């Protein structure tokens, strides 16, 4: 790079960073961070545990946005200082070129957030995995998917909380539901909704034959009370049962777990993570509101598309990604055509490439 090119990069980087300042509402978040820190400094802060946890969550969310922005600002300051040195001594040119590459990549990552402008993209979300037909094989694939996603959440610094878990009869999980906390979490993950296909030599087949298994993943944004979702109590069937699991705090001797069925749509939600039946019911109703909102939104989209004469792909039942472990190794996203042979890394949570590709394409399949 020439000195003039480096100077042009500097101006471009500064403009991009200022755009992010407005989009990410940095000044508002700084004020929110300060208010949260002031509340935490109060001697009676932990007297109200729920309010305290909400404040801690708010502070964490603010820091997750502010700190990378401020770090980028410091890197840009150093880069600009380096350009001044490079103008006087050519030995600094190589270091400035390296800094330019790093800053460009960092800004690309931060600008990914600009694609997340939907009404709930900043929200937490509910995440469910459901094993398809295939018994133990499908349930084992469900547990592999669950581990993959939880490892990804950990890599991003998100927190998750188990809502419900239904183990398989011999191995794996039939279904699992988690609540995931993170800034822009739903925006990143909404594209993961769909059917995931696994091809491998089954560890449960004594003849070592190749099996194909399917699991579906559902993603629903957490919505607050300001969003109106009409639910008629007469449309609900509420059942209680004992929590299941390997033991510990999620298993008790009372019928505290709650299952709610919305009869008109057939939507079923469960919650068993709390000891209190009342709290489990509240959580299950929150999940039901989210699922009904998404269900009705999709129905409206389909009606609008039918009027326009367009064909809408069924996101609930469509296969979005294939994971092939035998006879070759390949993970391929069928919407964006992103693929990799690093199946081990993917199943260990390294799915950033797939998630970002879908976000960047705006949810539209790549041209074939």
Short structural summary:
The chain is an alpha+beta fold.
Number of helices: 9
Separation of the first and last Cα atoms: 36 Å
Percent range of helical residues: 40-55%
CATH topology tier name of the largest domain:
Alpha-Beta Plaits
Structure keywords:
368 residues, 9 helices, Alpha-Beta Plaits, 2 domains, alpha+beta, 8-stranded mixed sheet, Methane Monooxygenase Hydroxylase, Chain G, domain 1, 20% strand, 3-stranded antiparallel sheet
Describe the structure.
The protein has 368 residues and is α+β, with helices and mostly antiparallel strands. The chain is built from nine helices and eleven strands. Helix 1 packs antiparallel against helix 3 (49-88), helix 1 (3-23) runs parallel beside helix 4 and helix 2 packs across helix 3 (49-88). Residues 247-251 and 311-317 have low confidence and may be disordered.
Please outline the helices and strands.
Elements: H1 3-23, H2 26-40, H3 49-88, H4 93-111, E1 125-131, H5 136-156, E2 159-167, E3 173-181, H6 185-189, E4 194-201, E5 210-221, E6 236-241, E7 257-262, E8 267-271, H7 277-308, E9 319-324, E10 330-333, E11 339-340, H8 343-347, H9 352-360
Parallel strand pairs: 4-9
Antiparallel strand pairs: 1-3, 1-5, 2-3, 4-5, 6-7, 7-8, 9-10, 10-11
Helix pairs in contact: 1-3, 1-4, 2-3, 3-4
